[in-house]
Design brief:
315 residues; 21 strands; five-stranded antiparallel beta sheet; five-stranded mixed beta sheet; mainly beta; Kelch-typ_b-propeller; Neuraminidase; 3 helices
């Protein structure tokens, strides 16, 4: 008779355990695995490190494959749109607004659960933003920060101008509520197609198409505005004399003015300054690309193009 020997997951070699863990979702499931034991926590960190290295290598060697995620027929799903706003927080991607092919704009908020790969529509309370596209959406702590945007005029009456916005809304994930931020400080002009990012407790806004001098008069901007998220207030940031990016919205300065330059904004002193960064291998860049999405991948910037993914690496 052979004695029965019982084995558990803890008896597996580290290599086998890490392989099994690598097959789980990279979001909540991977975080849950950290809580099992110290050994599992160490194995998860090794898996994360390996996945990061594999991703960077795949991008550098142009071996990234897009996968079309089809929503379940039984679950609610987001409608087709473009020029919407999106950002990631934890295990979710949030999407706000956008525009249809008939120039109708939305003011709905959707959340994509990246673990279950399902769409969820939070039915929020509070003061909803206006329906719009080309707004910026960033994360600060547990809040979404939505600024600016654009909407197409209604068909009637005829000959109406576009409408741009300079309203700023906060969406609290804890209370599921939209809050319109009203401050005594002077806000930027109504703006769309700008860029925005969060640095510490400040949201930094650059460029965009702005309303100038009244309804129907628009101009590109290269101004920098800062919104203090800790003590809500706007200020127009002072920039040192010298070279600076051309005025633009979505990377475009107007007809036949599509830019491919890269700039660094130095924020160390009270007066900020711009520095243009040299970009090597310009011949590999996509031609005439504007209003493109971009995301930071460790120390690199990834820009999807028509034929391949472009990687801009900074040291």
């Amino acid at each position: 008779m052979f004695a029965m020997v019982r084995f558990t997951m803890e008896d597996l070699p580290d290599e086998i355990l890490e392989y099994i863990i690598s097959l789980t979702s990279s979001y909540k499931d991977l975080e849950d695995c950290k809580l099992v034991s110290k050994r599992w926590h160490r194995s998860v960190l090794n898996v994360i490190r390996l996945k990061k290295n594999n991703l960077l290598r795949a991008i550098a060697e142009n071996k990234v494959r897009w996968q079309h995620m089809r929503p379940s027929d039984m679950a609610p799903t987001i409608t087709k749109r473009y020029s919407h706003s999106a950002c990631c927080y934890g295990n979710s991607m949030f999407v706000f607004g956008g525009c249809t092919s008939t120039s109708t704009t939305f003011n709905d908020l959707w959340r994509l659960d990246l673990t279950r790969r399902q769409w969820v529509r939070p039915l929020a309370m509070g003061s909803y933003p206006s329906p719009k596209a080309c707004a910026s959406l960033v994360i600060h702590r547990d809040n979404l920060v939505l600024f600016g945007g654009w909407t197409h005029p209604s068909p009637y009456p005829l000959h109406q101008a576009w409408r741009l916005f300079n309203e700023l809304h906060l969406y609290s994930m804890e209370s599921n509520r939209w809050i319109l931020s009203c401050t005594p400080s002077t806000p930027p002009p109504p703006t769309a197609g700008h860029s925005a990012s969060v640095h510490k407790d400040n949201m930094v806004v650059f460029g965009g198409l702005q309303m100038q001098g009244g309804l129907g008069h628009y101009a590109n901007s290269n101004d920098v505005w800062v919104f203090n998220l800790e003590n809500p207030s706007w200020r127009k940031q002072a920039i040192a004399p010298g070279p600076r990016p051309h005025a633009r919205y979505g990377g475009c300065g107007g007809p036949n003015m599509v830019f491919s330059d890269v700039w660094l904004l130095k924020m160390k002193d009270a007066v900020w300054s711009w520095k243009e960064l040299p970009v090597h291998h310009q011949q590999r860049a996509a031609a005439h690309m504007w209003c493109h999405p971009a995301c930071k991948v460790i120390f690199s910037l990834l820009l999807p193009a028509l034929s391949r993914a472009l990687l801009v690496q900074f040291s």
